[in-house]
Amino acid sequence: MDNRESAEMYLETIYILSKESDSVRKIDISRRMGYAKPSVTRGISLLEKRGLVKVDSNGELILTDSGRREAKLIYERHTVLTKMFIKLGVDEKTAGEDACRIEHYISEKTFKAIKKHMKEYG
Fold it and tell me: Which helix H or strand E contains 26, and what residues bound it?
């Protein structure tokens, strides 16, 4: 997994957890992603340096405006691709796993075409 993909995975996980709970901490990320806490700490630190995440005085992770925008785009790619694969007959588990891999590499042009197609025919 490259640095961009890793950063996107962290952002998406923070975004999903923030939809499920009022508070997101590094330990929540560690549990959800199955990563060791030191790895999560390093990943979050890199996101902080890029201005995508803030850690408040209570240790809660907060997406910045730009972090939230990026996370929402990643999450949208994941959900749209998963739905498309399921419509093609792929089982839900495989569809989600494949969407997770592809969401990080698909071009904006191709993704827009898929979204358009899904709206028209999906």
Answer: helix 26-33
Backbone angles phi, psi at 53, to 5 degrees: -140, 145
Quick check: 32 and 13 in contact, CB under 8 A? yes
Tell me what percent of the residues of the chain surpass a pLDDT of 70: 98
What are the residues whose beta carbons fall under 8 Å from the beta carbon of 43, sequence distance 6 or more? 6, 7, 10, 29, 35
Note whether 57 and 96 are within 8 A (CB).
no
The residue written with tokens 């839900």 in the block is 92
The string of pLDDT tens digits covering residues 16-26 is: 999 999 999 99
Tens of pLDDT, residues 79-90 = 999 999 999 999
Give the DSSP H/E element, type plus range, for residue 55.
strand 53-55
- Structure confidence at residue 2 (pLDDT): 63
Give the Cα separation of 4 and 22 in Å (integer).
27
Distance CA 9, CA 44 (A): 11
